[in-house]
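Example record

The entry below shows one chain as it appears in the dataset: sequence first, then structure tokens.
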Amino acid sequence: MSQANDISSIDDFAVVERPLSLPAQVWDKAVVRRAVILAGLALLWQGYAMVAGNPLMFPSFGETAQAFGEALLHGTLLNKAWTSVKVLLLGYGLGVLLAGLLAGLAASTRFGEDLLGTLTAMFNPLPAIALLPLALLWFGLGTPSLLFVLVHAVLWPLALNASAGFRGVGETLRMAGRNYGLKGWRYIGLILIPAAFPQILTGLKIGWAFAWRTLIAAELVFGVASGTGGLGWFIFENKNRLETANVFAGLGTVILIGLAVEGLLFRTLERHTVRKWGMQR
């Protein structure tokens, strides 16, 4: 009888989950909230441009959107963007490969740890764009110079994050890997990388951001071989022609590509790895 009373009292205080209303379900989606934020920023932009009344200095959102559409359909914006993305992907890939080798060496040997610590202390504080004059001297005016500074931009933050993640792997996992006879790169690939993947993913994001802005800055300041410049060169050319709306359109393209990579690539990778594994909320 007492047990039945206890069950009845528990039922009295049971939490009943009610389904969310349609507006709440829509607002619960991150893409909707982000779209609202972007729309609000666009309205602020349009309002300030109307108050300023100087399209040469600050074109409105409508003028920029029109310039963006014309450059996309009838101009060279799409080709310029693809030129930048191709160089970026190549430089980013090389940087990730070298960072993985350095971090793996640091996790395997004491000499590798000392080597990584020394190199990162020397080169990580050095801005990648500061190396571009030397790159132009060594490799000439073209893609190899851009690749050199891109690798520098990606290499050090990713190697540092990966190495810190490796050092943070618990001793229990390490012992489990050793008991299975794992050594060298198999031990790193099967034990250390999955356990340290949240920090590795953070390093990948930071490296991507550094590489993207380094590439745009390099193209903006120096360009590349004539006629093959990317988005930075597109911005620079339109600045010289005082076509400010096109300058904003180029900057907007840089932002849109960054948002696409963050939303489509990194968030998808995060959802299918660290969140699926329960390593991150």
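Notes for this example: The domain at 67-272 is CATH 1.10.3720.10 (MetI-like fold). The chain has one domain: 67-272.
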